[in-house]
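Session log. Operator J.P. requested a structure for one protein chain; no other inputs attached. Running the standard single-chain path with token output.
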Amino acid sequence: LQGLAYHQLATDEQVAAHGGSRVFDRLVALVKDEDDMSPTNFKRALGQLVDEAFDIGGGKWAADMGTALHAWCEFVDLELGTLDEVPDMFRSHVAAYLKALAAAGIKVHPEYIERIVVNEAYGVAGTFDRVYELADGTLAVGDIKSGSSIDLGWLEIAQQMAAYQTADAMLNDSDEWEELPELRTDFAVIAHCPITIEPARCRLVPMPLAEGRSALNSSADVRRWREQERKQKTTFDTQFKLPSADTLLVAAINKATTAEELGALYEQHEAIWTDAHTLLGKRRLSKV
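Structure written below.
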């Protein structure tokens, strides 16, 4: 909604420079044409307008800023330049990151920055941010997170770190696979540097890998179940059948020994009682 309002307030020159027509006008035209479109095409076109308005309203701003922060942290960790060369809007955040590492006695190994790894056991690949050398000389998988909080997503992060820590190989600059260094198995290190919070801050968080591996195994099980279901072309509702009210009624009629019992069954199951049940009841009474 904010994006729609921004686009309406933009000048004609600004709109012309970014697509040529206002999102709101295209939305109105789309709704007018809804009856002439298939539901799928209408929803697809509507979704495209939603995405465009979301971007205009700054919906991806934090993500874009986080990507930029990653790049500038990499800039200084690779020793491509100094902190003074980092743009003003990111300098305090990069400085907070460097200060946190220095306070913990952590060293960055440039040769392990942004390395592609593959984990065959889970069938996944990814790119870890860092390998940090801790004050005691041990190495830990490291990652920079720039969101406002990691409290709700910590288990997902732990899974990600566990997949990196248990990876089989990593790709080097010569496009060859090589072994990972010996990494800590108890925790990874998350450098949480929220880009949307001022003043800039950075907190180093030990991320438990045991919980990450456990959750990763559960996720792998779910994926295997879904894959098995897809291959066998079965669905979740094929294993059990609902009990049939008619079958249960027929069984009860066949057990009745008196007209009173049959009368009670009729009152209880009047909604599904048919002439066939009446005939069955008479036959039952003739045999007792």
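Operator note: The longest strand covers residues 139-145.
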